[in-house]
Write a structure and sequence with these properties.
Length: 339
């Protein structure tokens, strides 16, 4: 983080970090409070280590980190997490075509488990398939590694597909209320296709969500194998974004011994800071492409969406498969590599 970014961040959160001066004690300054929080997130040092470094009490450092993370979310959410507009979705689609070679794509979707200390009296709700206790971040990422949408706080035992079905993103995509354009012709052809997001096998197949063909179906079928390959290249962006987040904020490289509600705000604040740094272009060496103006949207839990893929969903996937295997699709992909 550059000095300019830190100063701008300080000015935004300063009202929340400024404490009243009393006759008994001079309060800790806002700049020191922000420095303590950033140090904690960036290094992953324990509260005890940071308390020695800044000569503050252990409980004081704990309070500073939690309150500052909440302030970052409060002050920056409206700036870097507005609701996506139709124009934003189209811009994201253009970036995927130009940078990633997957047409009509508006995001890559996946979940990330953040390891925590087992909460007291929590049973197995945080226990995941990796045999650790975790909280899940479900994220939709654009072609430049920025978070378009995030859902934080799901139990570790839940699957990515189940979390997607219960969050606001899945509900609004299902209802068509997220301002997503209806679609357009695929490049170099007269074939119309809707805008879609890409995910792995953990997610359901929908008209707006593409997942790869099962392995037994793709074996021996060159077109299906090619589709899976192209989808994988686009989908891995979200995994790269998680890697960048972990590299920037080393707090996630160890087990967090914090209450789940505090972990939620820490994860959300790092997502906000990640997008903020991308917008300030303060990320040279972490990603190779300049950040764009796609914005994320905070999600809230909603009802489950049961059911199996409809025929329309299969038809949309077949459309993309046939296009990517066609002459127009091969020419389109070739142009991306030449650029």
């Amino acid at each position: 983080m550059s000095k300019e970014c830190f100063t701008f961040l300080l000015e935004k959160v300063k009202p929340d970090l400024t404490k009243k001066i009393t006759r008994f004690q001079k309060p800790i300054s806002p700049i020191e409070r922000l420095a303590v929080c950033i140090r904690f997130l960036a290094t992953g040092d324990s509260f005890k280590t940071i308390s020695y470094s800044f000569r503050l009490g252990h409980s004081t450092v704990t309070e500073i980190v939690h309150s500052t993370c909440r302030s970052i979310v409060k002050r920056f959410k409206k700036d870097v997490i507005p609701e996506p507009t139709e124009e934003m979705w189209r811009k994201i689609g253009e970036d995927f075509e130009k940078l990633r070679g997957f047409p009509n794509c508006i995001g890559a979707l996946d979940g990330k488990h953040f390891v925590i200390e087992a909460p007291g009296n929590s049973g197995s709700i945080y226990f995941n398939y990796k045999h650790t206790f975790s909280i899940v971040l479900l994220a939709l990422v654009d072609a430049c590694y920025k978070f378009i949408a995030v859902d934080v706080g799901a139990y570790g035992r839940n699957s990515d597909g189940g979390i997607f079905a219960q969050c606001n993103l899945g509900k609004r995509l299902e209802n068509g209320t997220l301002h997503v354009p209806i679609g357009k012709n695929l490049p170099g052809s007269s074939t119309f296709a809707p805008y879609v997001i890409v995910g792995d096998e953990a997610f359901p197949l929908k008209t707006y969500l593409m997942r790869p063909y099962p392995g037994h179906q793709a074996t021996g079928d060159a077109n299906k194998t090619n589709f899976n390959h192209r989808l994988s290249l686009a989908r891995r962006l979200v995994e790269n974004a998680f890697g960048i987040l972990t590299q920037r904020f080393r707090i996630f490289q160890r087990r967090m011994k914090l209450a789940p509600e505090n972990v939620d705000y820490i994860i959300l604040s790092t997502c906000v800071l990640h997008n903020f740094l991308c917008e300030q272009k303060d990320y040279t060496g972490l990603i190779n492409h300049s950040a764009q103006n796609a914005q994320p949207h905070l999600l809230n839990p909603l009802s489950v969406q049961p059911g199996r893929p409809a025929n329309d969903a299969f038809a949309v996937r077949e459309t993309f498969k046939e296009y990517l295997a066609s002459t127009a699709g091969r020419n389109f992909i070739g142009q991306q590599y030449e650029e």
